[in-house]
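--- STAGE predict ---
source: upstream dedup step, 1 unique chain passed
mode: sequence only
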Amino acid sequence: MRSNWFKFSPPQILVLGFAAIILFGSFLLMLPISSVTGQTLPWIDAFFTATSATCVTGLVVVDTGTYFSTFGQVVIMLLIQVGGLGFMTMATLFSLVFKRKISLKDRLLLQEAMNQNTMEGIVRLIRKVLLYSLIIESGAALVFAIRWAFDMPLGRAIYYGIFHGVSMFNNAGFDLFGEYRSLTQYVNDPIVNFVAMFLIVSGGIGFIVLSDLIEFRSRRKFSLHTKVVLSMTGALIVIGAVVIFVFEFTNPRTLEPLGWGGKFWASFFQSVTPRTAGANTLDIGALRQATQFFIIILMFIGASPSSTGGGIKTTTFTILVGAVISMIRGRSDLVLFRYRLAQERIFKAVTITMLALFLVIAVAMVLSTTEDASFLSILFETTSAFSTVGLTMGLTGKLTVLGKILISFTMFAGRLGPLTLAYALGPKKGKELYRHPEGKMIIG
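--- STAGE serialize ---
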């Protein structure tokens, strides 16, 4: 059995591993003990929920806070934790606890799962991932619990703090407030807004960047990756907040009724959450179409590599923008922060973006024939699923069976990444031993 397992490539093992977790989670959510009423959740709804949790998306077809029992909610929280950190990270945790040796195959899997270029220091990185996650989630859970203790019994406040700490840090977007409200009742609350945004950004910038930030005192230097991630993440959040503030300022269903403080927090929160978090403090369906389309763009870009988020990633978007600017300026090299990037990085960024575009467009076209909704709503839902965001304009609960299957597949592909999925379905071939003659072609 072990020899057969070793025949699979790392991308194939990741695909099979996530699929196994989703199927097991679906089985647990179908149990009568998982629902408040003791009813059995239909298989397609259990499968959709398990996929959404494992792929840290947050799209739901049944209300998490009112339908599921405490057992069901804990199952969802564990699926979020395993899916956010990666099942290989969790497996490594057990190996470290029981002092088992991390094999070469395991290190290759970890390298693939964490999107690293080398195996060097991979186990040390996993230790940091586990430690940082525990500290950040625990700290946020404590603050949430103290804040919500003013609104609910202490025991419930602690439970809510833990659940939402895990959900927000892993960019999942699941909530327990019921009636699909998410955090809309806390749109003016600075504590809930700040802690939630801190969790979303911390989980979305990636563990490599977190490590660089924490160790900056000793190193006094950031890597190129960290500089790109921080600068692009900051730019997207600020630009997004300004655009949302301007577009929604006079919207009577969103920002207009709020005071200046509420407008500030709501604009920034709706700009941060497309980092693939899925929580919201404004009714997404009530936003103007221009704002909704702008959020689609933010969702498609998504979070950063080696993080709990999805999308094409901020680094990919930076490379694309940089390549365009370099071409316009007539430069042959792409230079970021005085470092020249290899052409291989540019080709990979273009490949990831084109595969993502193809997937989103194809799924949206099929859904436009199976679902009774506007195309903007369908495109929003599809992009949200691919980028594992979890925001919706209200379509999720109305999906047909085929629609649920398609969105589930899109969430799965988005969590693993289109390139990893492509490698799993068609493994990379060996290095070519020859080059074809160069050809000329007119472009533009």
